[in-house]
Amino acid sequence: MLKGINFLVMKELKDYFSSPLVYVLASLFSGIMGLIFYNYLISSNEITNLSIIDTILLPTFGAMNFLLMFIVPLLTMGQFSEEKKNQTLDLIMMSNLKPSAVIVGKFLSTFIVVFFLVALTFIFPIILGLSGFSDWGLVFTNYLAIYLSVMAYISVGLFASTLTENQIISVVVTFCILFALLLLVNMAQVTDNYIVGLIIQYFSIGFHHAHFSRGQLVSFNFIYYFSFVGFFFFLTHKSVEARRW
Amino acid sequence: MSSIAIELDQVVKEYPGRLALKGISFQVKKGRIHGFLGPNGAGKSTTMKIITGLLRANSGNVSIIEGERIGFLPENPPLYMNMKVEGYLQYVKNLYSLDKDHGGDSLEVIMKKCGLLDVKERLIRNLSKGYKQRVGIASTLVHNPEIIILDEPTVGLDPKAILEIRDLIKELSRNHTILLSTHQLYEANLLCEDITIINKGEILTTGEVSQIREKISGGQRLYVEVEGARSEILEKMVQELPIELRDQVLGDISSFKVLSKEAHDIRSRLSSFLAKEGCIVLSLKEETMDLEGIFKEVTFGVQDAQGN
Ligand SMILES: Nc1ncnc2c1ncn2[C@@H]1O[C@H](COP(=O)(O)OP(=O)(O)OP(=O)(O)O)[C@@H](O)[C@H]1O
Ligand SMILES: [Mg+2]
Question: Could you tell me if the CB of B267 is within 6 A of ligand 1?
C-alpha cells in the first residue's frame, strides 16, 4: 500500500511539475499575494504588534485563503476526470492498487504542490519580523489554518473530478461546493433559531478557520477538518468504485 | 484435451435500465486465438470488462485459469498523452510490478515485437492512431500475462496498419491466449481458431471456426457483371456449377449475384465457364458476408434445430 502510494505520488508530482499549469498558478499566486501584502504594508502607518496583526497579517491570510479556493480546484480538476477521459483510470484499477491508495496518492501530491505554493509567502512574516513583529504563534496557527483549509479544498476538488470527464465541469462543481460552504456562515447569521444557527455554523469552513486565525488551537476544529476530509474521501471512494457497476 | 483459460457461466449484466448481457456462457481455450464477434451494442466490451474485473456482473460466474494475469486493451487504448512511448511502457510495467516482478520480455524486446523502437522517444500525443494502438498492445504485454484481451484492435486503422496489427496478433498468439473482439467476420475468419458470436446480449453460437462455418449455410458470395450473357447460359451455369443465382438483371451488360453452395473458392470455375460460353466477365467481386447475414443464418439455424 505504502509502496503504491509512494509510486503514485512520484508520478503525479512529475506530471504537475512538467505541465505549465503549476508554474502559471505559482506566478499568479505569488504575484497577487505580493501585491496584496505590499498594499497592506504601505497603508498601515503605525507599526506595533497589534496593528500589524489587524491591518497586515490577518487581511493577508484572509486574501490568501480566498485565493486558494480558486487555485486548488484548478489543480485538482484534471486528477480523475482526465484519467477517466483517457481510460487510464481503468489501467490503474486493473493493477493491484486499491482505489483508496489512488485517492491518497492524488491527495498527497496535490497537497505537496500547494504546500510549496504557500511556502512562497513565508517571506512575508520574515519581512514583518525585520520591523519588530514577534507574534510567531499567531503566524503558525494562521498557516496551520491555511493548510487545513487547503486539505478540505483538495478533498472537495478530487471528489468533483471523479464525477465527470470534463475538467471545466469538475472545477465549477468544486467552486459551487466550496462557496456553498463559505456562505453557510452568513446563513447561520440569518437564521434566528440559535441551535440551527450553531449547527449550520459548525459545518462552515470559515467558522473553523476563524479560530485559528485568532491564534486559538481548539480540538473540535481539528476534528472538523479531519472529518470533513474523511467525508469527502469516502464520497470520492464511492464514486470511483461506482465505475464498476 | 486443451485446458480452459477463461470460462463464463450465465453472466448477467444490467446497466441502469438496460439489460446488456442476458446470461452468457462460453469458454476460451488456453493457447488459442478466440474471436468475439458481434455488431455494435452487442455487449462485447461489457463482457470483456467483466472478464478483466473492471465491471462487476450482476450474477453468474467468471473463472480465469488459476493465477493467470490478463493484459487488456480497451476500445480506446488507455494512454497518457504527455508521456513518451518508452516512459509510458515503463510506467505501466512499474504499476503492475508493485508487488513483485512478473518477469517476461524486457521493454526493449516488447517494443521490438510491436515495432515501436523507432518511436520510443516520441510523445504519445504525436503518434498516429496505428502507432497509439501498438503502444496500447505493447502495454498489455509488460507484466507478462498469459491471457491477452483486445477490444476491437483494428477498428479505425488504415489498411496497412490493420495488416500489421493482425500480423502482430498472430505473432503474439504463439505465446499467449488471445481473446479479441471484432465486428468483421472476415477478420475473425482470418485470425481466429475459435469464435463466439454475440448479439443483443445473447450468445448465438460458440465453437471452432470450421464447425461454425459449416453451420452457416452457403459459402462464397459474388457480385458478377458480364457482357453477352443470355438467360440460357445462366440456366446452364446453375446446372453445371454448385451455385444459386440472385438479383439477375439481364441486358447488354447483365449482372447477378452468385451464392456458392460449397466452401471453396468458385471464382476461377465461374469465369472459365462464362468465357467458354463466349461471355466477357467485366467484374467479379467477392461480397464479404456481413454480420447481418451471419446472424440471420445463425439464428435461422437455431430455430431450425429447435423446430426439429
Ligand atoms: N455505462 C453504460 N451505461 C448504460 N448502458 C451501457 C453502458 N455501457 C454500455 N451500455 C449499453 O450496453 C450495451 C452493450 O454495450 P457494449 O459497449 O458492451 O457493446 P459492444 O458490443 O462493445 O459494442 P461496440 O461494437 O459498439 O463496441 C449497449 O446497448 C450499450 O448501449
Ligand atoms: Mg465495444
Answer: no
Rounded distance between C-alpha atoms, residue B145 and residue B260, angstroms: 42
Ligand 2 center to B196 CA (angstroms): 15
**pLDDT per position as a tens digit, A53-69:** 888 888 899 899 999 99
> pLDDT over 70 for what percent of chain A?
97
- Interatomic CA distance for residues B238 and B232, integer angstroms: 10
Residue with cell 517571506: A123
Domain B218-286 is in which class? alpha beta
Number of folded domains in chain A? 1
Domain around A171:
2-244
To the nearest whole Å, the CA of B89 is away from the closest chain A CA by: 12
Q: Which three three-digit cell numbers place residue B118? A: 523507432
Instruction: Name the residue at shortest CA distance from atom 26 of ligand 1.
Output: B40
d(C-alpha A150, C-alpha A72), whole Å: 7
Instruction: Give the global pTM.
Output: 0.82
DSSP summary character for residue A48? -
User: Residues 86-105, chain B: which have Cβ within 8 Å of A?
Assistant: 91-92, 94-96, 98-99
User: How many C-beta atoms surround the C-beta of residue B274 within 10 A?
Assistant: 21
Q: Which residue has the cell 502559471?
A: A24
* Res. B246 pLDDT band, cuts 50 70 90: confident
The string of pLDDT tens digits covering residues B67-125 is 778 999 999 999 999 999 999 999 999 999 988 888 888 999 999 989 999 999 999 99
**Domain range B4-207, its CATH number among 3.40.50.300, 3.40.50.2000, 3.30.830.10, 3.20.20.240:** 3.40.50.300
B4-207 shares its CATH topology with B218-286 = no
Question: Which pLDDT does position A47 carry in this prediction?
Answer: 66
Give the span between the Cα atoms of B22 and B241, in whole angstroms: 43
Interface predicted TM-score (ipTM) of this complex, two decimals = 0.85
Asked if B223 reaches chain A (Cβ–Cβ under 8 Å), the answer is no
**Which residue blocks in chain A are alpha helix, DSSP H?**
2-18, 20-43, 49-52, 58-85, 88-93, 99-119, 123-130, 136-162, 167-190, 194-203, 205-213, 219-241
Distance from CA of B98 to the nearest CA of A (A): 7
Q: Calculate helix-pair angle for A2-18, B85-96, nearest 10 degrees.
A: 160
Q: Residues 6 or more apart from B293 whose CB is under 8 A from it?
A: none
Cα angle value B130/B102/B140 (rounded, 5°): 15
* Contacts for B47 with CB less than 8 Å, ≥ 6 apart: B8, B11, B13, B21, B24, B36, B198
Q: How far apart are CA A100 and CA A164, in angstroms?
A: 19
B2-17 burial, b at 16+ Cβ within 10 Å, e below that, comes to eeebbbbeebbbeeee
* Predicted confidence (pLDDT) at residue B155 exceeds the cutoff of 90: no
